[in-house]
Write a structure and sequence with these properties.
Layout lengths: L2 H21 L18 E5 L8 E5 L1 H6 L3 E6 L6 E8 H7 L6 E6 L4 E5 H6 L3 E6 L2 E2 L9 E3 L11 H6 L4 E7 L1
Parallel strand pairs: 1-10
Antiparallel strand pairs: 1-2, 3-4, 4-7, 5-6, 5-10, 7-8, 7-9
């Protein structure tokens, strides 16, 4: 066997391993979602049945922004006065990945997690905020992502239930049945 044949065989083997990894559903991207080109800030996964393969999606800031952003001006228990947050509606993220399920487990960088009913995303303009008063949020400023409810527009949300769902330093969303 010559070196060219060994090299070609090695390349074919590597390509086959890579293809099977992506085909396994470990990281799936819907055709309408672009793969991340910058650091990943949000993972969205779904495993609705134990026997079903997990579907997983990764977003960078640009990928989230491509889903469409809105501004939400609201007061929070953690800030002085009203703040303008810019982000993607939670329901738009769930729609983009064709999510199914009744709840989402949101997890922060420090592994704090909270379960949020999908109904919240459908009923309120809950956003996954990336910007606070026009600037990207750092980890020190509760970023890079912060789940924000429209407290100023919806007084019924001003209670501990919804405050506890407003997870900052958000890193992942996992859909549940």
């Amino acid at each position: 066997m010559n070196k060219n044949m060994l090299g070609a065989g090695w390349i074919a083997l590597c390509l086959s391993v890579i293809a099977s990894f992506f085909a396994s559903g470990v990281i799936a991207q819907e055709s309408s979602l672009s793969p991340p080109e910058s650091p990943i800030v949000l993972h969205v996964s779904e495993r609705l049945m134990a026997s079903a393969p997990e579907r997983s999606f990764a977003f960078d800031i640009a990928g989230l922004e491509r889903l469409g952003t809105i501004d939400l001006r609201t007061e929070t228990p953690w800030s002085e006065g009203a703040v303008t947050f810019t982000g993607v509606r939670l329901r738009d993220i769930l729609n983009a990945v064709r999510a199914r399920g009744s709840a989402v487990v949101a997890t922060a960088l420090n592994d704090y997690s909270v379960t949020i009913p999908v109904e919240d995303a459908d009923t309120y303009d809950v956003i996954v905020a990336m910007r606070k008063d026009g600037r990207l949020m750092s980890v020190r400023d509760r970023g890079p992502l912060w789940l924000i409810y429209p407290w100023s527009d919806r007084p019924e949300l001003r209670n501990e239930v919804y405050y506890s769902r407003s997870i900052w330093q958000l890193k992942s969303l996992e859909l549940l049945e």
